[in-house]
Amino acid sequence: MREKYPLLKIVDKTGKIVAKEYETEITAEKAKQFYYHILRLRTYDKKGRALQRQGRIGTYVPYEGQEGAQVGSALALKDDDWMFPTYRDHGATLTFGADMVRNLLYWNGRTEGNVPSKEKNIFPASVPIATQLPHATGAAMAEQYKGTENAAIVYFGDGATSEGDFHEGINIASVFQAPVVFFNQNNGFAISLPIEKQMNSETIAQKAESYGIPGIRVDGTDVFAVHLAVKEALERGRRGDGPTLIEAVTWRFGAHTTADDPSKYRDQEKSDQMREDFDPLIRLEKLMKMNGIWEEAWVTSIQDEIETEIEEAVVKMEAYEKPKVSDMFDHVFAEPTWTIAEQKQMLRGSR
Question: Which of 56, 265, 275, 320 is the catalytic position?
Answer without folding.
Answer: 265
